[in-house]
Amino acid sequence: NGIPAAFLVMEFVEGESLQQLIDAKRALDSGEAVHLFLELLGVLDYLHSRVPPILHRDIKPSNIILRPNGFPTVVDFGSVRRVFLSPEESGSTIAGTYGYMPYEQYMGQASPSSDLYALAATFLHLLTGRAPRDFMNEEGRIQVPDPLPGEERLGMVIARLLRPSPAERFARARDVRDALVNPSVALTPAAARP
After folding, report:
1. HEC assignment per residue over the chain
2. What is the percent of the chain with per-residue pLDDT over 90, rounded to a whole number?
3. CB–CB of 2/88 below 8 Å?
4. Tens digit of pLDDT for each residue in 7-48?
5. CB-based contacts of 45: which residues, under 8 Å, 6+ apart?
6. pLDDT over 60 (residue 3)
7. Residue 35: what pLDDT?
8. Which of 42, 43, 59, 72 is the 20 to 30 A CA-CA neighbour of 111?
């Protein structure tokens, strides 16, 4: 009939979502949790290092598939946004899921640090079996239990990534990776030290 049609082709990803693992109450051992976290940091580092950077803006347990080989895949890029907009593009769209997105994202101000916050909220849920909203105080800030189940260093990294101010979090996925694998990296941001 002469009318152009657009098609979206997506790959079928075999595996289980982290949400399915949580729902089945399947706990990951410390080594599995750290491996999964490091692999996902690699995915975010790749996305954030594109020019312009790509922000997922909706990292959560149902958007991470654990393949049968033990490696994760991030899915549902419907909320992706490039960091830099052209002059013709204006305004912002708020995208994300309550409990997993940081305050600045509610204001339309997402950054790589926002995706890292969502990854930390996802792992808080995965490690505790409780949704991030269960840990929110009256101000809407997540209070990370101390200690978190699993490896201590991972718990400390998650706590730093869930700080309300982006300036107090790690700015880049590779900085988080360095903090996890290099014990000499300080895990408490200068602004949060007593």
Report:
1. CCCCCCCCCCCCCCCEEHHHHHHCCCCCCHHHHHHHHHHHHHHHHHHHCCCCCEECCCCCHHHEEECCCCCEEECCCCCCEECCCCCCCCCCCCCCCCCCCCHHHHCCCCCHHHHHHHHHHHHHHHHHCCCHHHHECCCCCECCCCCCCCCHHHHHHHHHHCCCCHHHCCCCHHHHHHHHHCCCCCCCCHHHCC
2. 54
3. no
4. 555 566 789 999 999 999 998 888 999 999 999 999 999 999
5. 172, 173, 174, 177
6. yes
7. 94
8. 72
Which residues carry out catalysis? 58
> Can you tell me the distance from the alpha carbon of 55 to that of 50, in angstroms, rounded to the nearest whole number?
10
Residue type, 130: R
* d(C-alpha 121, C-alpha 99), whole Å: 7
* CB 124 within 8 Å of CB 158: yes
User: Is the peptide bond prior to 102 cis by the omega test (within 30 degrees of 0)?
Assistant: no
For residue range 172-187, list pLDDT tens digits in order.
Answer: 999 999 999 987 877 7
> pLDDT tens-digit profile of 129-141?
999 999 999 988 9
- Let me know: does 150 contact 120? Beta carbons within 8 Å: no
